[in-house]
Amino acid sequence: MESPPGIPSWMVGYTWLRWRPGLVTSLRDRHLGRWAAGELQRLRPDSCYMFTQVALESLRWCRRESIPTVLDNPNGHIRNFQQVCEKEARRWFGTRFHGPPSAATVARVEEEYELAGRIRVYSEWGKQSMLRFGVPEHKLHVLHQTVNLERFCPAAARPPDHGPLRVCYVGSLDLRKGFVYLLEAIRAAGAKRIQLRIVGATGDRGCAKLLARESAGLQIEVAPGDSLPVYQGSELLVIPTLEDGLPFVLVEGLACGLPVIVTREAGASECVRHGQSGWLVPAGDVEALAAALEQALLRREELWSMGQRARADVERYAGLAQLDQLSDWFHCRTADVK
Description:
By secondary structure, the protein is of the alpha/beta class. 45% of the residues lie in helices and 13% in strands.
């Protein structure tokens, strides 16, 4: 199999494209989509499971060939994604949003929704987001996230509960993920009381500047690479996302025995029990997020037992049975999809 095409790094780093991240992402998706469609024509599968943003060309080919298709859509509707980013760009940068997703990506993904026989979403929240923007309900099927429970497991020994509260954030540092609200909440709760470990990278220049500005005076450690030791060395995971179907990092953190603070504007809220395995807060609400951090500090001795409940929950929520359900659903039911 040939390697998928890409855009040379010099074209982004040394041309005007570096100022148009939305356009760059759109071009990359189109290049990859064309390559994938060519591979499908060569391999001629009986059914196809595809990922949104790079599936359009393959979906067009499958429609012509009457091949059943399933589209994996891990977030909410692409228009909700775009609207959240536009609002945040105005708030933090005072400028229009340049993507991703760009207008071209939105149009591309909406055509994918139309062409797909079935669409997998990861949560009821994701399903409702899709319905709100007009995707037919008969196409949508909720299948929850899964996780490797052997790899992602609690630390062998309980982390010490003295010194600053060890909090982790895992994921991209972009506007949609709401990282800036976490930084402000830590400052409000007491910068000396909390240590934040970050596993992730900024998606654009604006977010890099925003991170540098808002993290001043906070105890922050950037830990690139494997997230597992960060989970196992932390006492609390915070997911301040403004829009997310169900983050991979949520089930990873729960599996590692971490209580979680998560926003209600995400499918993650469906598998966290408020006050028992974590806390639910409104998205973009610094005061509420700071209050949840304060609760974690006050109940610090209980965090380990809360994490044990989180681990037990995720074993039911995202274990092997869920993986079997995904396999059965895809292999047994795609024959009905046209």
